Each structure stands twice: as structure tokens, then as C-alpha cells.
Amino acid sequence: MTTQEWKFTAKEIANKPDLFLPGHRACAGCVPATVLKLVMKATRGPTIVTEATGCMEVVSSIYPYTSWATPWLHTAFETAAANASGIEAALKIMKKKGRISQEHVDVIAIAGDGGTFDIGFQALSGAVERGHDFLFLLYDNEAYMNTGIQRSSGTPHGAATTTSPAGSSVPGKLEYKKPLADIMIAHNMEYVATASPYYWRDLITKVRKGLEVEGPAFLHVFAPCPRGWRSNPAKSIEYSKLAVETCVFPIWEAVNGNYKLSSPSKLLSLAPQKKKPVSDYLKGQGRFRHMFKPENKALLDEVQNITDKRWKQLLKKCNLS
Amino acid sequence: MTSKNKNWKEIAPAGVCSKSSKSFLTGDWKTYTPIRDVKKCVRCLTCVIFCPDGAINWVPDKKDIEFDMSYCKGCGICANECPTKAITMKLE
Question: Chain A closest CA to B2's CA: distance in Å?
């Protein structure tokens, strides 16, 4: 890997031409749009993007407009990874037959949490097992936002969605978030990482590392959605920072299965007193509003306990405890 | 097609988006407009990085940032993240 030498400044990133163009129809304060903009800034040459159905596919390709300044293919909800495998296989044979002049073409598959955690999972698992050279980017806004905020297996415990509404008998979603990045590591992948857009340098570096890996790479990016989370659009990026600071979404990377915390999370492991309580992250989000009622105190404590438990497990995996 | 009487209408190939979304201006969505205090701004480019709509650009010739109000949706991320609080949101 050569990314360690790739140093960049904010100016260089700002100067690089956008491949995800303005004029897309995402809601105001949409962080997945910021994520895609930053991800496309990390590309190193010719890149083909394939995207499963989801918010970012819909807002970026409303006929006859497209927000992509790079070859882009839309595919069905479940087949982002299968489509990427096909593109990669086609590129391989076309290069062999001398039909393309490019030395190397990167392939990025993009899907939301519904298209990765639930619907697209078997295609992803299959493509990784076959060892195709592509980067799978998951932007995780923690529910099916595009179709009207239904719960997905990426929705955290206790969150209210339209299919897991919080009321007097059920306090939001009862199940826990699926640890998908860990499941991907179990596929013996060379590169798996989680990232948060607030730490944008870390995000861009991780995208570049994922592209440089020969074989499949998986990147799980946290992406707050003000519409579905019923939060203030101006605070979207702030939530992506708070999620890391409260250890709800720690950021780390695993090269060949060896876990390593990235610096913002590493700092919290060295100075545990800086770790914030989860209530700092939960308050202000309408989907967790019911948790702050006196009768739901136990639920708030439970969320804190799960977060602490998962954080401790992660520290153990990183050999830090 | 064997029919001699052509009773269908030719349309553009479906599924190929041909126009850049840059020609679709989303600026009229906003209710709040960002106002920048040039004196407070330190040109750290935090707003350029975080803007979801690519509405804030770095102009190397001017050595300054420029707001493109034809795309700004007025979300207020730039005002919230600005380290020197140089941007304020004003109701239109």
C-alpha cells in the first residue's frame, strides 16, 4: 500500500474536480451526499461506479439529469455487488483482448444500509467470496429513508421508524444493529474499515486504501439523515462527530483481519474520560425522543450498556484492553 | 418490425440520463441564506469540504471561497461547522 505517502491538503481536495456534481435533489443537510462527494475526490484515475437503488441513486439520476461525471450504472436493490463483479470481469477480458487502453479501471459499488445489510447481502457475500477487485461503499443512514423511513437491520436499538414506531407498548425498534463490518471481516477480506464524514481526511484515506487493495474491500460510512432522524439539518455533520465521540460508531480499519483503531477513536481508548455519554448523541434526534421520557429511563441505560459492551469488545479485538 | 404502418412514436433511448444535473438549479429550495463575515473567515475550507450540494467553491485565482446560491439548499451545515463562526443563516 502506498497511501501512507499520499498526503493531501484541504485546498488540494477542494481543487480536485467534482465527480458528484451539484444539482442533485437530496434533502437539505443530506450527509450521504457529502460522503459521495468526498469519496469521489479520493479516486485515483478512471473509475466506474455502480449503485443500487436507494436515496443517493434516486436523487442523483432523475431523468434526464445525472449528477455523475464518471461512468455510472444503476442496478436493482439487491445487486450492487453482483453488478460490480460483472463490470470487473468485463474489464479484465476487454483488457486481455486489447479493447480498452486504460492500464487500470477502479470499480466502486455503492449501496445504502437497506441495500447492504438486508437486501444486497447475499450478492455482496458472493462477490467477496469470488474475490473481485472492487470497493463496496456502504453509506449507513440507519433505515430505508428513500421509501419512507422503514426499519432496516442497520437501525439502532430503540430508534423510532415508521415500521417500528415508539408508543406506549413498544419503545421503538426492539432488535440490535447488525455488526456488518465484523461479518465482512469473517469473509477473510484484505481491507475492511469504518469511517465518519466529520473526520474527512480519515474517510478519504480509507477510500484510497480500499481502491488500492487488489481484491474486494469494504467501507462502512456513517451518514446522518436529517429527514429520517427527525433532526436539525444543520447538525447532521455534528452527529457524525458525536457518534464517534460517544463510541456509538467507533472508527477503525482491519487489514487482513488485524483490527486497528483510527486516531479519533484511538484517542478515546487512551483517554477514556473524554468519552461522552450516549445521551449527548441521542438528544436532539426525533427518532430517540421517547427515550428521554421518565418511563423509558431503562431503555436509555440499556443503549449505554450495549454501546459500552460493543466498545469493550472492539478494544479487545484491537489488543488495547 | 414488419408492420408497414408506423404507428409508434420515436423517443430518446430510455434509461440514459443525458444532461448534467448542474443545469438543474436547486437554489430556490432554501428558506435560509448563508451570510459570510469576510473578516472572520480564515479560509480553512471546512465549509467547502462539508457542503452536501457543492455550493461553496474554492477559487484559486481569488484565493477566496465563493458561494454559489443557485445550488445552496440552505441546510446550515456550513454555519454550524465553521470554526470561527463566520457564517450566519438569515431567513430569506
Answer: 31
